[in-house]
Specification:
single chain, alpha+beta, 2,3-Dihydroxybiphenyl 1,2-Dioxygenase, domain 1, eight-stranded mixed beta sheet, 6 helices, 18 strands
Length: 291
């Protein structure tokens, strides 16, 4: 029986998602994609790779991993990294540049009631979501769950309505952040035990036993896990794709509280005071750091 989590068992309401590390095989091709298709700039060259983002905010860290293979579709790992834009015109400008760079990389779009989202795949098969959040005042909650759906969102109509010349010319100056990270996992029950019961996210939605959405502070979701391609998948092999998910929390006390909780639950973690590194049941690496 799951007892209601106490306040101390929850992750801080004002956490944020940070830089997503991708292990890449073809650095030139991947750099080209993230710079030209998604309008990101090189923020830093460090840690043996390249950080890309907007302004001074690193969103994606491309880490060279020559010799590794692209994972098969059914393996656990990354479903998509979701980049959040502050307004519809900025989203439309990046959707337009991504579609123009490689129309075949576009895989769908949807109005999720809480957000408007467009989906692409990078040259090494990593999923990307580009999205805009509707005002929180319009989100509908029922019994602690946020109402989400997949309503048709025709891309051309969206661009016709929201794309402006100003947004196109100012694309790289418009801010963006990592809004959420969506994983492929082997089963939803184990994901809930780890991400909700152990880590301290709150469940915000489910999807017919096939997906789980979790957040802190009543966001629609900071992370999600699904079994659409990967039901029954075991721990990951060392492949290209997801290297690390970063979660930032306000202070070192928050990192310490989580370290204690993981230790109590028997989860092996590396804690150096300022940050904490551990793996989920599928060997996805999570790093939690003080902002």
């Amino acid at each position: 029986m799951n007892l209601q989590a106490t306040h101390q068992d929850l992750l801080p309401a004002d956490l944020a998602m940070g830089t997503v590390v991708l292990k890449v095989g073809d650095m030139k091709k991947m750099l080209d994609y993230y710079k030209k298709a998604l309008g990101l700039d090189v923020v830093a060259e460090a840690d043996g790779g390249v950080y890309l983002g907007r302004g001074n905010t690193p969103l994606i860290h491309l880490a060279p991993a020559a010799g590794l293979k692209i994972p098969s579709r059914g393996e656990a790992g990354l479903f998509h990294t979701a980049l959040l834009f502050s307004d519809q015109a900025s989203l439309a400008a990046t959707v337009a540049s991504a579609a123009q760079y490689n129309p075949q990389a576009f895989v769908g779009s949807a109005d999720h009631l809480v957000s408007e989202a467009f989906y692409f795949t990078d040259p090494e098969g990593n999923g990307i979501e580009l999205y805009y959040d509707k005002p929180r005042s319009t989100w509908q909650w029922q019994n602690g769950q946020v109402q989400m759906d997949n309503v048709a969102l025709p891309p051309q109509g969206y661009l016709n309505s929201h794309l402006t010349e100003e947004a196109v010319t100012g694309q790289r100056k418009a801010g963006a952040g990592v809004g959420h990270v969506h994983l492929q996992v082997g089963d939803v029950e184990t994901a809930q035990q780890f991400y909700v019961d152990t880590l301290g996210f709150e469940k915000t939605a489910g999807w017919h036993g096939q997906a789980l959405f979790v957040s802190a502070g009543k966001y629609h979701h900071h992370m999600a896990m699904n079994v659409w391609n990967s039901r029954g998948a075991g721990p990951r092999k060392d492949t290209l794709g997801l290297g690390e998910v970063l979660i930032t929390v306000p202070g070192t006390d928050d990192v310490g509280a989580l370290a204690e909780r993981l230790s109590h639950r028997g989860v092996s973690a590396n804690h150096d005071g300022a940050e904490l590194r551990f793996e989920d049941p599928w060997r996805n690496t999570i790093r939690v750091a003080a902002a």
